[in-house]
Structures are given as structure tokens and as C-alpha cells.
Specification:
Elements: H1 3-6, H2 12-19, E1 26-29, H3 36-43, E2 47-52, H4 55-64, H5 66-70, E3 91-95, H6 101-105, E4 113-119, H7 124-128, H8 155-161, H9 164-175, H10 180-193, H11 199-209, H12 222-232, H13 235-249, E5 250-260, H14 263-275, E6 280-282, H15 292-297, E7 305-311
Parallel strand pairs: 1-2, 1-4, 2-3, 4-5
Antiparallel strand pairs: 5-7, 6-7
Helix pairs in contact: 2-3, 9-10, 9-12, 10-11, 13-14
Bound molecules: S-adenosylmethionine.
S-adenosylmethionine (SAM) binds next to α3 and β2.
Length: 312
């Protein structure tokens, strides 16, 4: 699959401008996805540790970034200061949850890096591949695991096994859905008749029980599906843990860049920066958002918010 079909990197120019890659500089891309941001760093001569919890993202990167996996930093490129345990490659790929960022980065020699990038959420590939069960638009088993090899609990497990109140809390807290309790009740009633196993079944239950109001720009099932995805992948817990690890991994003058796609992610980033003002200088007083042109060419970028800080 082509890179563009897998995922179009969001705010690419802005991300690269702030990270400012150059030969020998070292970065952690904690959300490799389709590898678009990572490739731009590599093209500038940087050395990158790419992390993703999704085995398909890593397989795609291994194929598309093959030349970098085989390359070694040139003599002028190699910084030996903290590369003691590093394999000395231009690109190192690791499968893992960025919630364990320090544990993933340190054994590969990536400490005191020049920058860390987070591009939260799911890739277009994850969203659009019916076998992954993330979207109400594709008929599929209700799965939503980012790491189907390592994670046991699917969205169908949550929907069919959790008590009504827990389902309501998930939909309310992670979907910011004001009809959460009504929807949870409808889900529990429906699963009493037959298990809810497909995206189509769940979307139909939501549509029947959450009439679209006039002002609604999004599909009625959007918030419920977002909520389940966050719960299945404990996304907010991982983000909170990863942010805590940032100051310990970035060197002085190193750059932290995070792209969020909804207010729950952005709030965690904002609070992290607010609580670490002594260590991190905030560069973007207001988040940077995509231009009209970017939104036109890649509508999925429309809710992106980029925040940048530099370690003092
Ligand atoms: C929006 S995509 C990143 C796209 C990428 N920047 C690009 O240029 O193609 C987000 C990626 O982060 C990964 N991801 C999400 N949560 C993760 C976590 N806790 N640990 C590791 N990877 C995660 C997803 O599997 C997905 O591939």
C-alpha cells in the first residue's frame, strides 16, 4: 500500500519546522503510523527511533523506510555521546505502547534526544481497514484494538460484558456524549436479545436511540465509537504516562511536539505543559491548526491541534 493511502501526515511542514532536523540530530517518533513524519526527519539526515503499538504500522514502515533501516549514520553524522547501546542505525523501529516510553527508548540508546513527536489517535489505515473494526462506516467485527497481537479485550467484549453504568461512563467521559446513559441502556437492552458483534449493529443501535439534531455536523455514532476506541486502547492513560516521561528523555533545547485530535488529548497536553513550566518553555501560546488548504486536501486534518515546547 502506498504511503499516501496508509496515512497522510498532518501539519507536516509545521512539525518539521519546529523539530528542525539536521544530520546527526536524534528524535523519537512515538507514533510512527504510516511513517510520513518519520520519513521527513530521516530525509533531513536525522537519526530516529520509531515506535508504534500496531504491528501493521511497523510492517508498513519496514517496507517503506527500508533504505533507512539498512543505513548507518555517516562519520560526520554519528554522535557517540549517548549511543553506547544503540545499534548505530539511522532508523530503529520498536513495537510498544508509548505509555512505556522510557522503557522503550533507553535500551536502544535514545536518551537526551533533540526532539519527541506525538501524533495521537489512529491512522487512516486503522480507521478504514474493515478488519480492524474501528469505524461505523465499514461493516466489520467490533474490534478496535491497536495491537491485536498483545491486547485481549475488544470493543465487542466491552459492549457485551460491562455493566450498563460502566458503558455509560465510557460513552460520557471518552465520547463527551450527552446521551450516554440513554445509549448505554439501549445497548444493554439490545445485547439481551443477541450479542452485539459488528460495527454495523452498534451503529444502528446508536442511530435509533440518538436522533440527529439540526446542528449536528457529525454522524450520531461518532462519539460512541471514539469513546470505545479510547477505552479499548486505554489511550488517555498511555498519553498521560508518556508525557510524564518527556522531560527525562529530551535534552536541554530539545523540542516536544504533540498533535491532538480531540479535546481530551489536547487537555492532557495543555495540563502537562502548564504543570511543567519550570522545565518546558511553551512555544505555541495557542495551538497551531491546519491551513484551509491542508483541510481541503486532507479533511481528516481538520480537528488537529499542534502544541510545541522546548526543554529549558
Ligand atoms: C495518527 S497516527 C500517526 C501518523 C504518523 N505520524 C504518520 O506520519 O503517518 C497514530 C499512530 O499512533 C499509534 N499509537 C496510538 N497510541 C499509541 C500508543 N499508546 N503507543 C504506541 N503507538 C500508538 C497508532 O497505532 C497509529 O499508528
Amino acid at each position: 500500500m502506498s504511503k499516501e493511502l496508509y496515512h497522510i501526515p498532518v501539519l507536516l511542514h509545521e512539525v518539521i519546522r519546529y523539530l528542525n532536523p539536521a544530520p546527526g540530530k536524534r528524535y523519537i517518533d512515538a507514533t510512527l503510523g504510516g511513517g510520513g513524519h518519520c520519513e521527513a526527519l530521516l530525509q533531513a539526515g536525522a537519526v530516529v527511533l520509531g515506535i508504534d503499538r500496531d504491528p501493521e504500522a511497523l510492517a508498513h514502515a519496514r517496507e517503506h523506510l527500508k533504505e533507512y533501516l539498512e543505513a548507518r549514520p555517516g562519520p560526520n553524522n554519528l554522535r557517540t555521546d549517548n549511543l553506547k547501546n544503540a545499534p548505530g542505525r539511522v532508523l530503529t523501529l520498536i513495537k510498544g505502547d508509548f505509555g512505556q516510553l522510557t522503557e522503550l527508548a533507553l535500551p536502544t540508546g535514545f536518551k537526551s534526544v533533540d526532539g519527541i513527536l506525538f501524533d495521537f489517535g489512529v491512522s487512516s489505515h486503522q480507521l478504514e481497514d474493515p478488519s480492524r473494526g474501528f469505524s461505523f462506516k465499514a461493516k466489520a467485527l467490533l474490534d478496535m484494538r491497536m495491537d491485536p497481537e498483545g491486547q485481549k479485550v475488544t470493543a465487542a467484549d466491552l459492549i457485551n460484558k460491562l455493566p450498563e453504568n460502566d458503558i455509560a461512563e465510557i460513552i460520557k467521559n471518552y465520547g463527551q456524549e450527552h446521551r450516554a446513559f440513554q445509549l448505554a441502556h439501549a445497548i444493554v437492552r439490545a445485547r439481551g436479545l443477541s450479542p452485539i458483534t459488528t460495527t454495523e449493529q452498534l451503529a444502528a443501535i446508536v442511530v435509533r436511540n440518538r436522533p440527529r439534531s439540526k446542528g449536528d455536523k457529525i454522524h450520531p455514532a461518532t462519539r460512541t465509537f471514539q469513546a470505545l476506541r479510547i477505552a479499548v486502547n486505554w489511550e488517555l492513560e498511555s498519553i498521560a504516562k508518556a508525557l510524564e516521561a518527556v522531560p527525562g528523555l529530551v535534552q536541554s533545547k530539545g523540542v516536544f511536539v504533540a498533535i491532538s485530535f480531540h479535546s481530551l488529548e489536547d487537555r492532557l497536553v495543555k495540563n502537562f505543559l502548564k504543570n511543567n513550566k519550570e522545565i518546558m518553555e511553551i512555544i505555541t501560546k495557542k495551538p497551531i491548526t491546519p491551513t484551509d488548504l491542508e483541510i481541503k486536501t486532507n479533511p481528516k486534518s481538520r480537528s488537529a491541534k499542534l502544541r510545541v515546547a522546548i526543554k529549558k
